[in-house]
Structure formats: C-alpha cells, structure tokens
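ESCALATION

Customer reports they have been waiting on this structure for their group meeting. Please prioritize. Original submission:
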Amino acid sequence: MGKCLDETSRRRDIQMAYNEKHGIIPTTIIKEIHNLTERTDRDSKYEFGNMKKSEIKRLKQELEDKMEIAIGNLEFEKAADLRDQLTAVETQL
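Update from on-call: job pushed to the front of the queue and completed.
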C-alpha cells in the first residue's frame, strides 16, 4: 500500500511541475449530468421481427462486445443503453 501511495505522490509531483512550467491551471470538468433511469419510449421498445435464433445470438454477442468497449472507454451512459438493449435481446432467446 505504501508503494502505491509513494508512486501516486511521485506522479502528482511530476504533473504539478509540468503544469507550472507550461502555465497550466487545472480546472474541474463541467459536464451535464443525465439521469440514466429515465428512458424514452424509443429506448424501452426493441423489435426483432422474425429474426432467427442464430441472428439473435450474434446480436447478443455484438452488444456484449460493444458494451465492454464502452466500459473500457469510460462511456457509462452508452454502456447503460447497450445493457438495456442486451436485456431486450436476452428475452428473445
């Protein structure tokens, strides 16, 4: 644990020196907050028509892959939407 704290402190010192050298003043990111629990009708209805089970399974895998990528990119709103789509797909299997 001590090594982690030392490394964090070392990196913070490097960043602060860089910021001072280049005249950078760190600021907080200001971003609109979206309520993920509110969904429109568009988000809650998915149609699969006459898709074959194999196509639905392929779609499920594709959505899972996209969701993992979104999570890795810290795009949690996109991941939540993909999760909802995935849930709808799973009901079709």
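Sent to customer with the following note: Residues 2-90 form one domain.
Escalation resolved.
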